[in-house]
Structure formats: C-alpha cells, structure tokens
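Example 717, ligand thiamine diphosphate.
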Amino acid sequence: MAEKMALAKAINESLRRALDSDPKVLIMGEDVGKLGGVFRVTDGLQKDFGESRVIDTPLAESGIVGTAIGLALRGYRPVVEIQFDGFVFPAYDQIVTQLAKMHARSLGKVKLPVVVRIPYGGGIGAVEHHSESPEALFAHVAGLKIVSPSNASDAYWMMQQAIQSDDPVIFFEPKRRYWDKGEVNTEAIPGPLHKARVVREGTDLTLAAYGPMVKLCQEVAAAAAEEGRSLEVLDLRSVSPLDFDSIQASVEKTRRLVVVHEAPVFFGSGAEIAARITERCFYHLEAPVLRVGGYHAPYPPARLEEEYLPGLDRVLDAVDRALAY
Amino acid sequence: MTVESTAARKPRRSAGTKSTAGKTTTARKTTSTDPELVQLLTPEGKRVKNAEYDKYVAGITPDELRGLYRDMVLTRRFDAEATSLQRQGELGLWASLLGQEAAQIGSGRATREDDYVFPTYREHGVAWCRGVDPTNLLGMFRGVNNGGWDPNSNNFQLYTIVIGSQTLHATGYAMGIAKDGADSAVIAYFGDGASSQGDVAESFTFSAVYNAPVVFFCQNNQWAISEPTEKQTRVPLYQRAQGYGFPGVRVDGNDVLACLAVTKWALERARAGEGPTLVEAYTYRMGAHTTSDDPTKYRADEEREAWEAKDPILRVRRYLEASNHADEGFFAELETESEALGKRVREAVRAMPDPDHFAIFENVYADGHALVDEERAQFAAYQASFADVEGA
Ligand SMILES: Cc1ncc(C[n+]2csc(CCOP(=O)(O)OP(=O)(O)O)c2C)c(N)n1
C-alpha cells in the first residue's frame, strides 16, 4: 500500500517487516531498544519483537560488529546500528579486516549477511564526530557493499534488499533527510539495489549524487532551469558497486558531469567516478568531470558547516564552470 | 619498569577482593548504604568515620569546606545556565552534569597543578577546578569551535566525544611522566557506558603492564543514554580493576569529601610509583543525557526522586550548617556570586562571535599542506565572487 512517511519511519517499517518475515533477522546497537535509537529509527521494535530480537548492546562498536559477524556465522542476519558516522571507527577494524574478507578467505563457503546502518552526513548543527561522510573509507575496501538511499521509498526497499543480501552491506542513512516525507509503496517490486536512477531528465549536464545530496541537486536543477539550463539528476543510490553504465549513458547524452557529495573531494567517491567516466566517455565529454564536496579539513564546527558543505551556490558555480568549457 | 616487577607487586589495597563475583547470576544495583561504598558524609550531612580514608581529609579547614561547597554551587549554576542557553537556541547542545558535582569537584580538587586531566564531554566541574574559564567550555557546544582552550595552560585536555578514547591518551601521558621520572599523576574520566569500550580495557592493560601513574575515574551515573549499567557489566565496575592487577574502589559519588579523599589516595599511589587505580564514583545523572535526549522514554521518575534525596550539594550545606562552619551571610553571598556567574556566562555566549570562514583551513596541519593552500585559495576566490556581485 502506498503511504506517505518520513525516511526514518520508512526504515523503521522496513526493519519491522524484516523482523516479521525472517526470525533470523536481529537488530543490534546502542539505545536501539526502549529509546528506539537516538533518531528513533528502531522505535517500537523492541516492544513488539522482544529483547532477544532487538538488542541493546554494550557501548562497544568493535563488539557490536564483531559479535554480529559471529551471529552471522551462526545463521543470523544482524542489522547493526552505529549511532553516528564518527563512532564507526572503533568497529572499523572488524569491518575492514574481518567482515569484508571472510567470504573470500573461506573460498566462498562463509557468507556474512550483516547490515551496518550508519546515520551519516552533516547539516544538522551537531557537535564533532556527528556529521561526517566516511563512505570512501569503506568503498576502498573490497568485500563490502555500500549504499545510501535519498528518499523514503528507497530507504524502505533498499533496506529490505540489504538485509536479504548475502554480502555485508554498509547502509549509510542521510540523517538530515530523516524527517523528509515521501511516498512508500510497500507492495511495489523494487529495482536492483545497486542501480542508479534518473530523478530528473536533462540535456545540458548531468549532476550525480547519492544520499543527502540528491535533494540538493534537484534544487540546483530547478534553479538552473530558471536560467534556461536543462540538468539531468542521477541518484546513484549505491557507492559500491557504482552503476557506471547509468552514469555513462547520461553523460553520453549531456556531455558534462558534476559529481556532488558531502565527503571531502580529495580521494573521495567523486574522484573514482571522474576517473572512470573520463575513461569511458573521453570522446563525449565537453568539459572535465567536476566535483563538489567537502574540503581537505576536519569537519568544521556547526557554525561553519554551511561554508563547508556543498550548497546550491557552490553546485551552481560548478555547473557554470562546466558549461563554460 | 618490567612486566615481571609489576605483575609481582601486590596491590596495596584490593577492594576487589571483597568480591561479589561469585553471585552475579543477576545483575545488581548497589545502594549508597552498600558496605563497599566509601562514604564520609551521609545524605543527611553527618560526618562518618572511615579508618582508611579519613586521613586524606583530616586537615581540611572550614574555609576549604566552604570552598568545596562554593565550587559545587557555582558549577551547578553554570550548568543550569548552559542548559537554559541551549533551550534559548544559543547552544546547539549541552551535556549537563547535574547530580555529578561532588564526584567532579571532589576528584578535581584532589589534583595538583602539575597533574594532567583527561576529561570526556561532561567534566565541567573538573574544568572549573582546573581553572578553565567556564565560558571556554561553551564554544564547542555553540558550534564555533571543536575545542576552545589550550589543554596545556591548565593541564586539562580537550573534551573527548568518542567514548573511551581519552583513557588511552591518559595512560600514554602517564607512561611519559614515569619515563621522565616526574612525580605528577594523571586522571582520566569516563562513564559507566565507556567501561565497555575496547579502548578502556586496553588502557587498563597498558597502565598495569607499565605501572603508569594514572587514576581511572569512572563516574557511574547509572545510565549510558538509555542503557542502564546492567547493560554494560555483570559485576560492580570497580571490581574490574582486580583482573588487571590494580586496585579498584567504589566511592559515594555524591559525597564530595569521600571523592576528594579517595582520589587523593589514588593520586598519591600513582605518584609513589604504585601504578594505576580505578575509582568508581557511584552517582546519578539527574538530567537528560544531553539536551537532545528524552529520558522519559526509558526511566522512571521515582528513580530520579530517590537520588534527589542524596543531592551532593544539599548534604554539604547540612553539614556546614550543623557544624556552624557557615552562616547565612555566606550562603547569601554565594547566591549573589552564582547569579553573577550566570549573567557573565549568558553575556559571554551571546557575545561569542561566529568563526571566520577561513577557520576551516586553519591548523589542519602543523607544517602546512599544498592541497589545503590550494583549496583555501579557491575558497577565497569563490567568496570574493559574491563580494563582486554585492558590490556591483
Ligand atoms: C564510540 C562512541 N560510540 C557512541 C557514542 C554516542 N554516545 C555519546 S555519549 C553515549 C553514552 C555514554 O555513556 P557513559 O559512558 O556512561 O557516560 P555518560 O554520558 O553517562 O556520562 C553514547 C552512546 C560516542 N560518543 N562514541
């Protein structure tokens, strides 16, 4: 049934459905029980599924991911919550050295269907370590899949697919979009998890983004349209694997590409996209692939995040530069 | 210091030997009447004798007692002001220490000027004891900086938000003190939730193995956001120390005298080369975890009410009054001082300027970095392009 709900609520509904349909699905994390998580994404789940399915863990991220690996080895499908982006690093060792590699090391015998949910990104005026976008740090690691929904419907369906995936999935939730409402059809047949989607058609330039930046790019495209420019907006949806075919198809049409993400530009996902698209579309491109993102600086205090994060003007500026070639 | 010599030394006092470890099939809650709890001042304000720890506060003068009281009152006033500034939108977030004043002032006042403190994000009372201007603590909560003070000017490290990290820094710093042959000590603060982190376990291991002069001061305020201490441990936290080979003590965290005495003892042990100590200050977080938290989702009002009866400030007042160590004039004067502090903090926060935009690129590296220079220049050109438009 189609229903309008906030992105956070869509994830909640998706988790509920997963818990309901598969007794092996577990929710684990700090404060996910009675409190329902600091963003209330797991609200009410412990009440309905009990403490053995929705587990408040000790305050130990390495422990959360490490035990989730063990549970997965035992046949469970844990969905773990890391409270904020900046707190995933105590678990980084377990994710990178164990979660990502065990399938290969076991010659394919071991499957680790673990979902690591990470609310990420800035724009909410938080203190240190609560606004970062570390997706590139994970994308560099083979064995992990990395996705990030931009709207409620994707949040719902991508979570279903992530939980069903036999690979570990790092599920980056755009926290500043948690409260954005969108239509969710819980009976739809979803497209492939790692496929990009054109959210706005255009002919002059392609804007590629994922997670929190998709909405911004739609706003940019709307603003550019007023100046008579037709921008295509791609929601990449997945960072690893990246759907280069969809990007290529769009760029072959528009001949220009600007990639937008919150993470620092240097060694970020935009760099990978720029390099591959330059290879694939060398003769189609009218301008170098441009990137808009964070600077090579620690995520700044809240009163500077507007300067740090890509905003309408900065993206439009990049659009202008690309179109000027 | 070799591993063998450390391992061979018997802790001078092992509170952990009075273990209840054998009967831990159900997680338990200790009350303030628990025999394991070091207490020198009851909630009613009665001074009780303690053979082991009395000597650490024996010489305390009425003036010093009033000083401790003043510290707690002013810290609470500062904290209340910060909470209301957050409500007024002047701060993005605030982590209140309400209820933990005795643990922080007692332990903070036990430190010596050359000791070094490694706090979390809630140690406003300890900062006060270290002479950090309270207004400096507000910058990161207002969102104008990610720190706000020079850690070396008061030997008070920057607040650490990532849970548990600082206990390792404290241990390393203490290892450095030992290497230097200095006689200062280090104190690391953390919460009951933090006790579950790997970093904290590793800091226990390192400090024990290298006999580092560090005091681990755990404020067990009963909650880690929504999770009670039972979700972190099945044995009383102070007993953890035993497994690492150093003493652990549980102190009434709402008793400023007991916190002062026990911390002094632990710091002196550290200075005397006897290695680390774990102090568990058994206290209570009376407010929300932070201003973003809603404790009504997970805890009962009665619990807070029970702890209010053990208010750390009230009991000192009762003691001061009963022993005629303070008169009405003192309390009235302190009230005025409190209000003045509140006003000063309020005005300072409102006057706090937003950071310069270029601060993003400052201090990213000590030696500079070509990419940062390039991005700063691009940023400057971009900013200037707006000035042109506005000027046109
Ligand atoms: C590594 C890490 N994980 C999660 C968090 C989010 N978080 C902030 S405070 C907190 C609870 C801490 O509880 P405790 O250690 O008992 O200290 P208290 O805040 O009660 O003083 C949590 C989970 C964090 N800051 N760092």
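Summary: Residues 114 and 168 of chain A are 5 Å apart (CA to CA).
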